[in-house]
TrEMBL record:
GO biological process: glutathione metabolic process
GO CC aspect terms: cytosol
Single GO MF annotation: 5-oxoprolinase (ATP-hydrolyzing) activity
Region annotation (Disordered) ranges: 529-548
Protein name (Swiss-Prot/TrEMBL): 5-oxoprolinase
Residues annotated as domain Hydantoinase B/oxoprolinase: 23-547
InterPro entries: Hydantoinase_B, Oxoprolinase-like
Length: 666
């Protein structure tokens, strides 16, 4: 696939209708009813799912028309599935063309058929009225395991999808109303906690049935012609209002890049994701053809995932526009096959959301920040997953299989006129819930040891990024257990814009037998045992604007809130704060010393980015400088576990700072 697929009945030169065919009241009632129908699916899944991951809202639903086009997504769907349910439905309808019957239900998780990754399992039910296919109701849930060598199915060692887990092409799981138990058993017995997987399958299937029931109620009430017209008008409505808003913006082309930390099959250095955006009249087109080829691990994206990132990144700047396939008539993308943003089968893609996906989104944030500066936002923290699995040996659980599947909140980027959001769900899924620690501890032999906001994690700026979170845990009684981790931005650290500075590196620290090891951002199947401890921070968002322009009083308030330390207030913001009595938050700004410190930083900060990187790294290894000094002052990136200088990465990171920060400093 090389471009976005518009609705089959729509061409690029077709303009939206000036008037809708339904009266406004009926149209609005039905359009809202479609949203309510999808939201009912969400409530059904949440009440009946077996998986703690799905319970914490890693799912989406939608209503598709008979051609697979998205008529409506719900108000509780997460961003990463946006744009992919449309393609999966089209591919499935094409696969079963000529053999689609009332009572059929399909299952598919194939990432190369417009999907995301194999954990996202889609259930689709064709809806008939008077023996005619009128719609498809679709439910997507992230199953906590779909097989493969690593619990949770996140295998960094995979060289192809065969080593990730079970890839499911379109299959009939109900055939004309008959449950194909043999097929369901074949799938779920190849997955860990197979009873949970079967429960999630049934929960999602029931959600599609409820949506079918509600849709047919609307048909009985308003008539089939009226409902089908409302389908078409709902898409045209989104197209029309999106075109109207784009038409008011200046034509032009904007360009930027974001990065994955490295390709393990090559020398150190960033993997480039190149995004060019063009506004032409009332349409927006993205060209990602300058992106690097796919990498040698699972951080690649498929077409569906990357197009989803394009749609989600754009939609973030148009929050009032509803979401359906009418948007895809206005927004298009070139995603060349063979690149990191459109990896072909059998290239592994399970970690795509932590890899290419969020990089595309953040790049698009930066582009739209130039076009709509009043809505500008710096980069957000990187999604991360920490997974553990094995046998639970706690009393009452002896030998039972467990799967601990955790993600963290983190900071979003600073904005024009406002600090970033603290401890927020990742941009890939703004609707995700922070998982209940008590629920996790009941289900798995892991005890949470800490969960708190990380001081100094937010990228400094006139408006700082939101703060990240630190979460730690300790293994309880377990056997044959392993841990895996999927993240990025240990090197391509969450960046600021308009003069703002970066956040902090991602990564896990694991302590076993008293020995502490920095594990980095990607690993799989590391053996763990009772008593082992781990901790990982999420980055804050990037800063917006020159940190030396931040009001010293705002810096003082951040110190009082433990968002910023006294030392980083001095080194990042040039604000000197005297500690009178920290126990009662008694601090005081030394205004004269602050003026001197800010003048000193202004005089020398461009010089710091020119210092010999190896000399800077040596000062770090000698304990003279800390990690944030290297990142924010000197632009030096190391292999953090060893202190070894990464020359190519440092050169690229410094250039990134020059473009996004130095160029904006007065």
């Amino acid at each position: 696939m090389t471009d976005s697929g518009s609705d089959s009945d729509t061409h690029a030169d077709v303009q939206p209708q000036a008037n809708i065919d339904l009266d406004p009241v009926t149209f609005e009632v039905l359009r809202s009813s479609f949203t309510n129908l999808v939201d009912r699916m969400a409530q059904q899944i949440r009440r009946t799912c077996y998986s703690f991951v799905i319970y914490n809202r890693d799912f989406s639903n939608c209503l598709n028309d008979a051609e697979g086009n998205t008529v409506m997504q719900g108000s509780k769907d997460i961003a990463v599935h946006v744009g992919t349910l449309h393609y999966t439905c089209k591919e499935t309808l094409e696969y079963f063309e000529g053999d689609i019957n009332p009572g059929d239900v399909y299952i598919v998780n194939d990432p190369y058929l417009g999907g995301t990754h194999i954990n996202d399992v889609r259930i689709m039910r064709p809806v008939f009225y008077d023996d005619e296919l009128i719609a498809v109701t679709q439910s997507n849930g992230h199953w906590a395991d779909v097989g493969g060598p690593a619990p949770g199915s996140f295998n960094i060692e995979a060289n192809d999808h065969y080593a990730e887990g079970l890839r499911i092409p379109p299959l009939k799981i109900w055939d004309a109303g008959e449950f194909r138990e043999d097929v369901a058993n074949l799938l779920t017995t190849n997955m860990r906690l197979s009873e949970d997987r079967m429960g999630d399958l049934r929960a999602q299937t029931e959600a599609t049935r409820i949506a079918e029931e509600r849709l047919l109620e609307l048909v009985d009430k308003y008539g089939i012609d009226t409902v089908m017209t409302a389908f078409d008008e709902s898409k045209s409505y989104v197209e029309r209002i999106m075109r109207e808003q784009i038409r008011e913006l200046p034509d032009g082309t904007w360009h930027t890049q974001d990065y994955i930390d490295a390709d393990p099959n090559k020398e150190e250095g960033f993997v480039t994701i190149d995004v060019e955006m063009t506004i032409d009249g009332d349409e927006v087109h993205y060209d990602l053809s300058g992106s690097d080829e796919y990498v040698g691990n699972f951080l690649n994206s498929t077409f569906g995932t990357s197009f989803s990132a394009v749609v989600s990144g754009t939609k973030m700047f148009f929050p009032d526009v509803p979401l359906n396939s009418g948007l895809y008539r206005v927004v298009s993308a070139d995603l060349p096959e063979g690149t990191v943003v459109d990896a072909p089968e059998p290239v592994p893609v399970t970690g795509s959301v932590a890899g290419a996906y969020e990089k595309v989104m953040n790049a698009i944030f930066e582009l739209w920040s130039e076009v709509l500066p009043e809505r500008a936002m710096a980069a957000a923290f990187n999604l991360e997953y920490l997974l553990a699995g094995g046998q639970d040996q706690r009393p009452g659980y002896e030998g039972q299989e467990f799967a601990w599947y955790d993600w963290m909140a983190g900071g979003w980027g600073g904005r024009d006129g406002k600090d970033g959001s603290n401890a927020t769900a990742p941009v890939f899924g703004a609707g995700l819930a922070v998982q209940s620690l008590e629920g996790q501890e009941r289900d798995t032999p892991l005890l949470t040891s800490q969960h708190s906001i990380v001081a100094d994690s937010a990228g400094p700026g006139e408006y700082r990024g939101g703060c990240g979170v630190r979460k730690g845990g300790r293994m309880l009684a377990c056997e044959n257990s392993v841990m895996s981790y999927c993240s990025d931005r240990a090197r391509s650290i969450t960046w600021g814009i308009n003069g703002g500075l970066p956040g902090i590196p991602h990564g896990v620290t694991l302590t076993q037998d008293g020995e502490e090891r920095q594990m980095g951002t990607v690993f799989s199947n590391v053996p763990i045992d009772e008593g082992d401890e781990f901790v990982r921070p999420s980055s804050g968002g990037g800063g917006f604007g020159d940190p030396l322009e931040r009001d010293p009083v705002a810096v003082l308030e951040d110190v009082k809130d433990d968002y910023v330390s006294v030392e980083r207030a001095k080194r990042d913001y040039g604000v000197i704060i005297d500690e009178i009595d920290p126990e009662v938050c008694a601090y005081e700004i030394d205004h004269e010393a602050t003026a001197d410190q800010r003048a000193h930083i202004r005089e020398h900060r461009t010089e710091w980015l020119e210092e010999d990187p190896e000399a800077v790294a040596r000062r770090y290894r000698d304990g003279e400088l800390d990690t944030l000094d290297l990142i924010r002052r000197y632009g030096v990136i190391l292999e953090w576990s060893s202190g070894e200088l990464l020359e190519q990465t440092t050169a690229q990171f410094r250039e990134l700072l020059r473009e996004r920060a130095v160029s904006e400093w007065s």
